[in-house]
Amino acid sequence: MITRRAVIKSGLALPLVTQPLLAQAVFQRDGVALRGYDPVAYFTNGAATKGAADFAAHWDNAIWHFASAANRAQFLNSPEAFAPQYGGYCAWAVSQGYTAPIDPDAWRIVDGKLYLNANRRIQRRWEQDVAGHIARADANWPNLRAGL
Question: Which of 51, 53, 68, 130 is most exposed, with the fewest beta carbons within 10 Å of its own?
Fold first, then answer.
């Protein structure tokens, strides 16, 4: 078996992987969307808030965690209103034509929609042209989603 360490020692380059090997239309780890953060809390608390498995729901082939039963109920009543754009993948990456994981603390609500980014550095880049990046991401997302 060839290990990462053996490849690095050999001097060969590893390919950059921009999509998970088992890609999903919703960004998730171990089946849980948004790294376990509550999508409703971005709107109601104005903050990234960790959800709990006690308040979980299944939607769009992923498990979503919520900080409360009330938030779970709100989400299930209107999931499209609270779910992040582009399946919760990095909005900047989608605008560039690929998917990337997110940092739940790098977020912004624009025109009532939740957008997430890979990290705060990328978020600052995305914020230099929010409207342009959203337009490009909106155009790219159908093909990216179809390929997941």
Answer: 53
Give the DSSP letter of residue 84: P
SS3 assignment, position 9: helix
How big, in percent rounded to 5, are the helix, strand and coil portions of the chain? Answer: 45, 20, 35
Local structure of 114: helix, strand or coil: strand
Q: Which residues contact 119 (CB under 8 A, 6 or more apart)?
A: 103, 106
pLDDT tens for 106-118 read 999 999 999 999 9
Q: What percent of the chain has pLDDT over 70?
A: 84
Strands 32-33 and 113-117, bridge-based pairing: unpaired
* Contact indicator for 103, 117 with CB cutoff of 8 Å: yes
Compute the distance between CA of residue 115 and CA of residue 134 in angstroms, rounded to an integer. Answer: 9
5 pLDDT more than 70: no
130: left (phi over 0), alpha (psi -120 to 50) or beta: alpha
* Residues shown for the chain: 148
